[in-house]
Structures are given as structure tokens and as C-alpha cells.
Design a protein that fits this description.
Structural class: alpha+beta
Strand content: 25-35%
Number of helices: 5
Shape: globular
Number of strands: 6
Mean pLDDT: 85
Helix content: 25-40%
Radius of gyration: 15 Å
Order of helices and strands: EHHEEEHEHHE
Distance between the termini: 20 Å
Oligomer: single chain
Bound molecules: acetyl coenzyme *A
Amino acid sequence: LKFVCVSNDGIDEHMVWLIGLKNIFGRQLPNMPKEYIVRLIMDRNHKSVMVIRRNLVVGGITYRPYVSQKFGEIAFCAITADEQVKGYGTRLMNHLKQHARDVDGLTHFLTYADNNAVGYFIKQGFTKEIHLEKKRWHGYLEAMLVTLFYAYVWNFSEKNVI
Ligand code: ACO
């Protein structure tokens, strides 16, 4: 089992993994248009943290780091159907947090959680209270037209130690 963070860099193995992740998102996030999933996964501004087992993708999180603003936007998050609720989602999120802090220098994450995934995000420490100053995120989010009422936020505060 390994955790990797890759983007569309043209390396064959990475492309195979990104396509595997696209297929998982396609099945697990039926409300998301397939073209939108492909566009963001293949966009060079986005990165994907994935769980790989026996060279197959078990799940992943695609996010966009806004390095100058120090926050990341989680676009998609899913684990393949027969491996859910076994702890992979939690381990994946911990790897993402570590990578985002150590490599990207981020302090916060924002995401628009589906109603049925709110429980998962809350367990990962996300809240509805946005402590990040508005000037740091305003105008940056992919889905900014959506009211922030639906946004869930996570930050590297003392109570959120990983
Ligand atoms: N609702 C409530 N609680 C949940 C849910 C859920 N949908 N999914 C997991 N949990 C809980 C688990 O019970 C567990 O609780 P525990 O620690 O008390 O035992 C905890 O969250 C962590 O569970 P994991 O096993 O680590 O989670 P899993 O590997 O299943 O990954 C995920 C969670 C990613 C939500 C997965 O179930 C999944 O792919 N679901 C379908 C797709 C989806 O809804 N993705 C998120 C959409 S929002 C977005 O993409 C921005």
C-alpha cells in the first residue's frame, strides 16, 4: 500500500493512476459531469493524492493548492465502492494534510461536501465556521458562485494536529 501525490506531468505511470482515479470519481460522484472531472484531474494546477495497492488505485483526493493564499480547495474525494469504510479515506486525508502543509505550505482547506459525505468531513476535522479571512479566499474558488454556506473548512490549528 502506498500514498502518492501526482499531477498531469506526462509520466506514463502517473497517467495510468490518474485515469484509474477518474474512473472511481466517475462512479462515486454521479452528480459530477464526467468532462468536469477529467478537466480538473488533468489540469496542471490540480494535484491528486492517491492510495495505491498492487499498482491499482483504491481512491484519492484531487485538490488545487492556492500557494500564495495558503489554502487548498478539495475538488473531489472518493474511495472505490468495495473498499469504503475501512479507514482508507481517513488515511488519505491525513496524507493530503501532511503533503499540503510540508510541500505546498498551506494552512487551510475548503471544500463543498455532498450532503452524504458531511459526516466524513466532520470526522476529519472540517467545520462550517470559516476562520480564514475573506480576502484570502474571495475570488479564488472554482465554485465561488456557490454560497459558502456549503463550504467546509479545515485548518492546521492545535486541536487539529495530525
Ligand atoms: N457519512 C458519515 N460518516 C462517514 C461516511 C459518510 N458518508 N463515510 C465515512 N464515514 C465515517 C466512517 O464511519 C468513519 O467513522 P469512524 O472513524 O467513527 O469509524 C469515518 O467517517 C472515516 O471512515 P473511512 O473508512 O476512513 O472512510 P472511507 O474510506 O469510506 O472514505 C469517503 C470516505 C471518501 C466519503 C467514501 O466513503 C466515499 O468515497 N464515498 C462516496 C463518494 C463521496 O461521497 N465522496 C465525497 C463527496 S464530497 C467531495 O468530493 C468534495
